[in-house]
Amino acid sequence: MIVENARDLTYYTGNDAETWSPDWCPVSVNQSHVINGYAGEISHFIDCIKNRAKPRPDIDDGLKALEIIYEITEQIDIPPVWKQVPSGK
């Protein structure tokens, strides 16, 4: 795996390579953390796939985070609003 300019990711398997580059623009100024992606997390995820390991955080951690957020919104009487976010494609 090679990450160029903290933006373009190329993953090599043998003689094959796949490249991923973000195709969106930030919605407000100074959102480089969004447009540049998360190279460390992607590398960890690829290592987990190669080694058949469970990634951290995993889907159960994400579900627990959503449960906590939902509980907080209920306790402070804010109705949660779920919106579909378009993928831009």
Task: Describe the protein.
The protein has three helices and three strands. A hairpin with a 2-residue loop joins strand 2 and strand 3. It has one domain. It is of the alpha+beta class and 89 residues long. The protein starts with a strand and ends in a 14-residue tail after the last helix. The chain has a three-stranded antiparallel sheet with strand order 1-2-3, with no helix packed on it.
Beta fraction: 15-25%
Determine the structural class based on helices, strands and strand pairing. alpha+beta
Number of strands: 3
Specify the helix fraction band. Answer: 25-40%
Kindly report how far apart the N and C termini lie. Answer: 25 Å
Sum up the structure in keywords.
single chain, 89 residues, alpha+beta, three-stranded antiparallel beta sheet, 3 helices, 3 strands, 38% helix, 16% strand, flat
What is the strand and helix layout of this fold?
Layout: E1 2-4, E2 8-13, E3 16-20, H1 32-35, H2 39-51, H3 59-75
Antiparallel strand pairs: 1-2, 2-3
Short description:
By secondary structure, the protein is of the alpha+beta class. The protein is 38% helix and 16% strand.
